[in-house]
């Protein structure tokens, strides 16, 4: 299904990712962890085609197109002079997609300007917007940041449902949520990536926190 090859990703002279090569062959939820600055967002942006890098990303043996992915950055940018309802329409037009559901995951005041929203309300609005359509791939960068506990629970249940038909990639620093819900977890460290299956999740913390000699 999803094949990720990143021979090298540099920002100026600094190499952030190197010799990354992994496949995701089954639908499900996959976690990405690593200390701050190890390259989780960079990896996602490479997969999304938002970063220039040496390598290739394919989905079912074809070039992956941004339009087919639901992408939620850690701190989504919203046009704050729009209402939530207007933003949903704007997002549809921007992505050139036809709305597939009118059921919204989160309640937000739809007729209020986004500039009056709290951080969590803005994130909920963005998530509502990207979830208006069904996608084959969902990529969410620290989706639980800014959301209250109940909303995290709602979001996780929604993603579990979506993962029956889609690939869901999540980065997070909350390991417990990933341990409970992911098929596999990828640790990004020292420019490279290591995959852990459920049986080996207990090794992850040691790998993240051990300083290599
Ligand atoms: N646009 C950029 N220009 C230059 N360097 C960048 C850029 N974006 C990221 N970096 C650097 O690349 C490295 C990886 O950053 P990235 O944001 O991918 O890490 P992360 O694992 O997502 O971190 P965090 O957990 O803090 O979100 C960091 O050293 C960062 O400073």
From TrEMBL:
<dbReference type="InterPro" id="IPR003439">
    <property type="entry name" value="ABC_transporter-like_ATP-bd"/>
</dbReference>
<keyword id="KW-0813">Transport</keyword>
<dbReference type="InterPro" id="IPR027417">
    <property type="entry name" value="P-loop_NTPase"/>
</dbReference>
<dbReference type="GO" id="GO:0016887">
    <property type="term" value="F:ATP hydrolysis activity"/>
</dbReference>
<feature type="domain" description="ABC transporter">
    <location>
        <begin position="2"/>
        <end position="211"/>
    </location>
</feature>
<dbReference type="Pfam" id="PF00005">
    <property type="entry name" value="ABC_tran"/>
</dbReference>
<keyword id="KW-0547">Nucleotide-binding</keyword>
<keyword id="KW-0067">ATP-binding</keyword>
<dbReference type="InterPro" id="IPR051782">
    <property type="entry name" value="ABC_Transporter_VariousFunc"/>
</dbReference>
<dbReference type="GO" id="GO:0005524">
    <property type="term" value="F:ATP binding"/>
</dbReference>
<protein>
    <submittedName>
        <fullName>ABC-2 type transport system ATP-binding protein</fullName>
    </submittedName>
</protein>
């Amino acid at each position: 299904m999803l094949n990720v090859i990143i021979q090298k990703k540099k920002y100026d002279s600094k190499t952030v990712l190197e010799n990354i090569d992994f496949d995701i062959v089954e639908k499900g939820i996959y976690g990405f962890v690593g200390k701050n600055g190890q390259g989780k967002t960079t990896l996602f942006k490479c997969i999304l085609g938002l970063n220039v890098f040496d390598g290739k990303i394919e989905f079912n043996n074809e070039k992956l197109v941004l339009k087919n992915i639901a992408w939620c950055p850690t701190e989504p940018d919203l046009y704050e002079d729009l209402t939530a309802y207007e933003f949903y329409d704007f997002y549809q037009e921007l992505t050139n997609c036809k709305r597939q559901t009118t059921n919204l995951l989160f309640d937000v005041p739809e007729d209020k300007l986004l500039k009056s929203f709290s951080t969590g309300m803005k994130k909920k609005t963005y998530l509502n917007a990207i979830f208006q359509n069904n996608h084959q791939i969902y990529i969410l960068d620290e989706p639980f940041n800014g959301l209250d506990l109940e909303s995290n629970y709602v979001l996780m249940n929604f993603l579990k449902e979506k993962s029956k038909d889609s690939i869901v990639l999540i980065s997070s620093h909350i390991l417990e949520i990933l341990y409970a819900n992911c098929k596999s977890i990828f640790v990004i460290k020292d420019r490279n990536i290591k995959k852990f299956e459920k049986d080996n999740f207990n090794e992850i913390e040691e790998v993240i926190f051990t300083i290599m000699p």
